[in-house]
Write a structure and sequence with these properties.
The protein is mainly α. It has helices at about 5-25, 35-45, 50-60, 60-75, 95-115, 120-140, and strands at about 80, 90-95. Strand 1 (about 80) and strand 2 (about 90-95) form a beta hairpin. It is globular.
């Protein structure tokens, strides 16, 4: 492997992680943090899920996901629904206000990213999306 390319990737990732959240999310427009945003995106796309499934998907401890989901529940963005197969467990389901907050947050993020990439070509934007998805897949399967 090309050592210089790897060093560039490492440095640029460190810088990206530092800058991305502050650039892509306007805290004045939303009460949703990154973890809440990701949980709501997942629940919106794939439907209700239990804490263990969410923890596995995000490679987090169950206690961490429970705390994050509870914060969303306190804001009325998700609600608990009983598991019909096991009365002791439950799933989290996104609520209407959760959809509204998710949509507002996503639009704000997309607006910021659109502005950041306004002078990029469509091919460059598609390449970045493809490579980020490929990189995230590699991280998930490490």
């Amino acid at each position: 492997m090309n050592k210089e390319a790897l060093e560039t990737i490492e440095l640029e990732l460190a810088i990206l992680i530092r800058r991305l959240t502050s650039v892509s999310t306007d805290k004045r427009k939303t009460s949703l943090d990154r973890s809440g945003y990701l949980l709501l995106r997942r629940l919106s796309a794939l439907g209700p899920a239990g804490v263990k499934v969410l923890a596995d998907e995000f490679d987090l401890d169950i206690s961490t996901v429970s705390r994050q989901a509870r914060a969303l529940e306190d804001k009325k963005y998700v609600k608990k629904i009983p598991d019909s197969q096991d009365g002791r467990s439950y799933f989290y389901q996104i609520t209407e206000s959760g959809y509204a907050e998710l949509t507002a947050n996503q639009m704000s993020r997309l607006d910021s990213i659109t502005n950041l990439l306004s002078d990029w070509t469509d091919d460059d934007r598609e390449s970045l999306g493809y490579l980020l998805k490929k990189f995230n897949h590699s991280l998930k399967n490490r």
